[in-house]
Amino acid sequence: MSQAGSKDRDAPDLDATEKQRVERANQIFLRLRKELHDRERQPAERDIREAVQGAQWLREVVERHSNGLEQAYEDALSESGLPEDDQAHLWKETEEAGGFSSFVRDHLRRLEEAAPTEGEHPADPTGGMTHRDLMCGVVAGLLAGGTMMGNSFYFGFAVGASRKASCW
């Protein structure tokens, strides 16, 4: 699996703040994916709140850069080194959602909306979000972050997590 993307690719031109937010969101989503995958238990409220913040950052960046994101995703997916069936799996689901940008925005928005609001301390820190919904939001975040940072290494995590959680 290729870790670095091609520098020729049409990756979005992110400013320093956007890059920092995308990198931080990637870290949050990788940690949460590991926690959800390894422990198969409810994540801590702090983890959910961080994931919601990461989802918000990524969604905002995706909305600002949606024009070039489709081509960047196509390029990243083809350069990812993933087996053809894994590439087809990701490609099919993003296309059915109306394209990569729509796919990412929809899943990240669901993650944002399902989490408890500030000051709310429910017994369930996910605000009623299912394990599957949470995992699918994490997958969308990893795909977006990997695409925007030119790091297709995240695609492998996304494929495995999406299949395990039956995201699509």
Which geometry do the CA atoms define? globular
> Fraction of residues in helices?
55-70%
Pick out the low-confidence regions: 1-8
What fraction of the residues are assigned to beta strands by DSSP? under 5%
Strand count:
0
Main sheet makeup: none
Radius of gyration (Å)? 15 Å
How many structural units, i.e. domains? 1
N→C terminal distance: 22 Å
Structural class: mainly alpha
Instruction: List the secondary-structure elements in sequence, H or E.
Output: HHHHHHH
Overall pLDDT confidence: 82
Helical element count?
A: 7
Notes on the structure:
The protein has helices at residues 16-39, 45-64, 66-78, 84-96, 100-114, 131-149, 153-164. With 168 residues, it is mostly helical. It has one domain (16-164). Helix 3 (66-78) crosses helix 6 (131-149). It starts with 15 loop residues before the first helix and ends with a helix.
In short:
By secondary structure, the protein is mainly alpha-helical.
Can you lay out the helices and strands and say which pair or pack?
Elements: H1 16-39, H2 45-64, H3 66-78, H4 84-96, H5 100-114, H6 131-149, H7 153-164
What are the salient characteristics of this protein?
single chain, 168 residues, mainly alpha, 69% helix, globular, disordered N terminus
